[in-house]
Structures are given as C-alpha cells and as structure tokens.
Write a structure and sequence with these properties.
This protein has a six-stranded parallel β-sheet with strand order 3-2-1-4-5-6. The radius of gyration is 23 Å and the shape is globular. The protein is of the alpha/beta class and 478 residues long. It is built from 21 helices and twelve strands. The N terminus is likely disordered. α1 packs antiparallel against α5. The longest helix has 22 residues.
Length: 478
Amino acid sequence: CRLEVLPLSVAGTCALALARAGAARPTSLLALTALCRLLPPASRGGFAAAIRPPAPGALAESVRRGVRAPIATRRAAVRLLAAATTAASAMQAPQRVVDPSRRQVFVVGNEAADVDSLVSAYALAAAFDDSETQGIALAQIPREEFMLRGDAMSLFRSAGSALLSDGSPAGLLFWNEVDGAVVRNLEGRSLVLTDHNRIAQKVAEVFGGDVQFIFDHHSDARVHPDAGGEIVEGLGSACTLVVEEVVRRFGEMPPELGRLLAGAILLDTRNFSPKKKKATPRDQAAFEYVRPFIPVELGQDTWYKQLLKARKDVSQLSVEDLFVLDMKEAHVEGFDGRVAFAAMMTTLDDVLAKAGGPAELQRAMQGFAAERGFSAVVCIFAEDDSGFKALALAPASESQQALCDAIEGRLSGAPKGLPESLRENDLFATQGILELGFGMAPRADLAPLRAIRMRPEISRKTLLPCATTARAADDMAT
C-alpha cells in the first residue's frame, strides 16, 4: 500500500517472487507494474514501450473475474522482471574498483555462459589474482540472465560464494556492467579465454584481439596461435585444465573453488557415466583434487542429481528464455551473418507443448532471430523417451533459407566430406560420427517446422563445427 517506502532491492526481490509464481493473473501484473514504477526512469528497461498492457477497463474486468492474463501480457511481466532485477542488482552490486597499482587480467568464458564457463572464469580469475595482477572474471551475459541458470545458482550457493539477493555471484562481472571506455584506458591489461578459443566479436570490440592465455576443450579454431595456456580437444570439462592451473599457482585448492570446480566437472562429464562417454583419464585425475570438497552430507551421486535437476528444471522459463539459456553464436563459412546455436535443456516435445505447436515454435525461432540480428536459429533438443535427440532450424527470413539448407546438408552428409581437421577431433570418433554420421531423419510430421531426429550421442561440440565448416563442394544440402 505504501510502495514508496520499499527499498529498490526489495522491489526487485518481490518482482522476482511474483514472476516465479507465474505472473499469470492480472492482479500479479498490476503488482509488478507498481513495483516497476519505483525504478529510476533510466533503469526501467523501456518498460512503457515493452509492456503494452490491456486497456484499463478490460484489465479491471479480468481482475474481477480472476482469469489468467494473455500470454503476451505474461511475457511483458517477464520483461518487467528483468528491468526490476537489473536495477536492484545494480544498486546492490559492489563497485568494482580497478586497482591502479596492479595490472588487470580479464578472464572471460564463452557466450553461452554455462556452468563450465562461469566457474572456470571465476576460478581462473582467482588464480591469476596476486600482488601484481588483479584477476577479474567476466560473463558474456547480462546479470539478470544468470537467474535462468538453475544449476549455476545452486552451485555458487553451495560453495558459499558471496551472492546478491538475485542469486548472482558478487565476484563475477557481467557484460552489462562492463565500461568499455574504462577498459580501453587500462594500460597493460590482458585477456584470458576459457571454455572457448575464438574471441567473440563484442569482446574484441572492447578488449582488442590480443589473447594472453586460453584454457579450452573445444575444437581448436587456430585463431590465437600466440596465446599461452592449453587447448585439449575431447576433455570432458574446461574446468579440468583450471583445476591443474589453480593447483599449480596456489599449491593447494581453496575450498570455495574446490566445491565449484567439483560441481562443474561432474555436470560436464555426466558424473563420469561410462554410457555418456564424456570423461577422460585427465578429467578423472583433476576430479580427484576436488573430490574432498563435495558436500559430505550428500555424497557425489546425490549432489550430482541435485545439480542436474536444478539444470533441467525449466518449467518456469519461456521458449525465448530457453533459446538464451545455453546459446552460442557462430559464423557459417560461405555465408554472411551470425547463427545462434541453442542447446535446449528439454525435449522437442516439451518445447512444442510450451510454444503451442510446430508453427508457433517456428514463429518464435524466426522472431528471436530477427530481434537479435541472427541470420538463423538452430536448436538442439535433449534426448526424448524414444532415445533420440532432435534438431530444428529456422531462418530469420526466406532470403536465409539457403543458409539452413547448407547447415542441414553438411550434417546429413557426414561423415562424407568431413574436413581432416574434424576427422582428427577425438569427439567425432567417440560419438560414432566417423562411422555412423549424425543419424539425421527429417520429421515431416512437424511441418512447417524444419525438425530433424538425430542420434543421442551427438552434442553441440561436434554439431557446431560440422555445421559451420565449409566443404570442398557444398552441394550436399537436402
């Protein structure tokens, strides 16, 4: 009743609680609207233009009848939440002071900002931090998107890391908090990449193209030949390399970092499941350093199941949230523009139900591509009850249809025509691609959505380089 006395951080927390409850009823939307009015005008995230609520009379009638708000209104409530949470986080976030007596090293994970990237950047920044160097961990997402990552929220909380009220780590710098002008004026600054080995365009625009170190387990793009560190294709987790680096620099493992690294390695290796074939002996050796930091009261298997459950609980997320939850963007050789490759945390059937059907999912993908400036969106879905994964492709417009044709053709044609650089990647053998290909089978029953069934062993680590690497003759499109 007296919202003007409510601290801004509390307003953001209340908005978060309302949105998690669904913000499905007009009464909830009205409460969110009132909370958002507390935000400074510059922090409202374009609220007035974004929300477009129903006419006052219609909304009042909906409140009286107690009916659910339209889906567009519920999506507007989520956008409102983002504005409120961002402003609240900004009010709480510690002012990151650049230490003029030390040289700054920024450690940045990949653009998907999954647990492996977040934890490896966080731990490496701590490892580089000493009397002469200030280590700063950087995530390539805005702070408000961290709350979409249930596994990361659970893991940082379990490790006892300092958190803001929205659950995000206070020790992580997020992309919307980067001051490019300040960064460019830092003398002697350097950049470290973890969980990827090709600098993203937006990062290069702020930090320049020079990379000092790389710690990664993906296919080597060979674009930073002078960088130190190590790229080991086929490792289960980039955090395996980070464990080795932390132990080398500290001589021991700090408990907070030990808990974080243990959780990240377990998630990436699927708890060292022989069936999943994600781990290597080097992953196992690194894990032995951090095994003592697993919660004693839970044990390895139970803790892993809890983290995995937190990762897969996407019931409150919209289809658009699922696109950004674990998304990487890439250039497809032979074509202009960028393509979003989204690893979906659930099955194709689940997303179809959430979207409302094949045509609705296709429109959502096309709309997301157009809004974010992508030429196309490629979604990789989790294994379903029939034992298969799925793929869906959508161009931003008809003019980009040839791009999707080429991506599908490169995947369907494998292993025929695979470049030697991919044949030498151990994962292509481990996942059976050199022998069986991707096992692509179009789902004509889901038209107009361009959906394809594929083998369950396939991951984005093999699909993305295969889809983006040009062939000697790109004439395999279906």
